[in-house]
Amino acid sequence: MMADEKKTPEAESEAPKVEETAAAEETKVEAATEEAAPAEEAAPAEEAAPVADDQRQGRGRGRGGNRDGGNRGRGGRDNRRGGRREEEDDGIIEKLVHINRVSKTVKGGKRFGFAALVVVGDGSGRVGFGHGKAREVPEAISKASAAARKKMVRVPLKEGRTLHHDGKGRFGAGKVTVRTAPPGTGIIAGGPMRAVFESLGVADVVTKSVGTSNPYNMIRATFDALTNQSSPKSVAQRRGKKVADLLGRGGATEAEAEADAAAVVE
């Protein structure tokens, strides 16, 4: 009984020490946990940063931002369009006649764009015109050029340099007169009409335009005059005669008429 009484005070003195040790260990564990928490929060942030960078790079590639990556996006599409246009322009003369700004009124306000008028030709008797509208100038020109290529017409030329005969054309209030000319005259025409004859391949012609300065009406009136052109060969076929018979009139000898008939290509 005496031994038990001696042990009991010692146990009571050691109990507070054990409790203090346990409390200190718990404090250390809590401090370590608090230090580890910011590190764990920083790690996901660092992992998210490359993902955000990758997303930005991917978005840039999708819109042409990374043009080195296969020419994808808008940049690549524009490059392909430009290359195709260069191939189509091989042997075709393309002239921009007029470009103006247009607007379309919609529910939310006005939408502005551009309208282009283009004349194309091969320089050997074929010519056409077209117009196109778009939000940007290059796209409007491309549309006009494509429309002009689809509507090219053939015009007979005398000796490959001038018209066979005089002619008149009209569209709206515009009136044009075209006259054949001797070698060395050049293209006496202004504005839109000059672009038409340069694309057509005419070297000598005299023209006159009255009634309007609208390039659209002038172009249409000029094409009206050109489509009414006819060559001696087509007239001879229509009338069932020989070309020499038609060219022999007007005091020309038979030999001269035959020579002129042989020189007629169209």
TrEMBL record:
Describe the subunit structure. Part of the 30S ribosomal subunit. Contacts proteins S4 and S8.
Read off the Pfam families from this record: Ribosomal_S5, Ribosomal_S5_C
Residues covered by the S5 DRBM domain: 92-155
**Species whose genome carries this gene:** Altererythrobacter rubellus
> What GO terms are given for molecular function?
rRNA binding; structural constituent of ribosome
Q: What is known of its domains?
A: The N-terminal domain interacts with the head of the 30S subunit; the C-terminal domain interacts with the body and contacts protein S4. The interaction surface between S4 and S5 is involved in control of translational fidelity.
Q: Where is this region: Disordered?
A: 1-87, 247-266
The record ties this protein, via HAMAP family, to: Ribosomal_uS5_B (MF_01307_B)
Coiled-coil stretches: none
**Mind telling me which InterPro entries this protein's record contains?**
Ribosomal_Su5_D2-typ_SF, Ribosomal_uS5, Ribosomal_uS5_bac-type, Ribosomal_uS5_C, Ribosomal_uS5_N, Ribosomal_uS5_N_CS, Ribsml_uS5_D2-typ_fold_subgr
Has UniProt tagged this entry with the keyword Ribosomal protein? yes
Renumbered to this chain, the Basic and acidic residues biased-composition regions fall at 1-31, 65-87
Q: What does this protein do?
A: Located at the back of the 30S subunit body where it stabilizes the conformation of the head with respect to the body.
Q: Which GO terms describe its biological process?
A: ribosome biogenesis; translation
PANTHER family, from UniProt? MITOCHONDRIAL RIBOSOMAL PROTEIN S5
Put simply, this protein is called Small ribosomal subunit protein uS5
Q: Print the keywords alphabetically.
A: Ribonucleoprotein, Ribosomal protein, RNA-binding, rRNA-binding
Q: Locations of Low complexity compositional bias?
A: 34-52
Per the record, the similarity remark reads: Belongs to the universal ribosomal protein uS5 family.
Q: Which GO terms describe its cellular component?
A: cytoplasm; small ribosomal subunit
Q: Which PROSITE patterns match?
A: RIBOSOMAL_S5 (PS00585), S5_DSRBD (PS50881)
